[in-house]
């Protein structure tokens, strides 16, 4: 779950200065409903998704005046063949 959070944060941190320099931009990231409601038996996954939601909420508030917008999409359960 580390890459779920750290990879996204590293990329957004790397491109943020350029976005500000260019007068703004928008981050759109995909989290999960598990990032809003902590389901049982999904502690690590839910924690990573909560962290993404919080990061982008704070990033939006801190940089809104610089034209930076952040949108986090939190889809619900999706049926897959993986376990």
Strand order of the largest sheet: 1-2
What value does the Rg take, in angstroms? 14 Å
State the shape: elongated
Task: Give helix % range.
Answer: 40-55%
User: How many helical stretches?
Assistant: 2
Largest sheet: 2 strands, parallel
Into which percentage range does the β-strand content fall?
5-15%
- Overall pLDDT confidence: 91
| Straight-line distance between termini | 15 Å
Topology order in helix (H) and strand (E) letters: HEHE
Low-confidence stretches: none
| Structural class estimated from helices and strands | alpha+beta
Number of strands: 2
Quick structural summary:
The protein has about 80 residues and is an alpha+beta fold. About 50% of the residues lie in helices and about 15% in strands. It has a two-stranded parallel sheet.
3D structure, described in words:
The chain is α+β, with helices and mostly antiparallel strands and 83 residues long. Helices cover 49% and strands 14% of the residues. It contains 2 helices and 2 strands, in the order αβαβ. The protein has helices at 2-21, 43-63; strands at 25-30, 68-73. It has a two-stranded parallel ribbon. Helix 1 packs parallel to helix 2 (43-63).
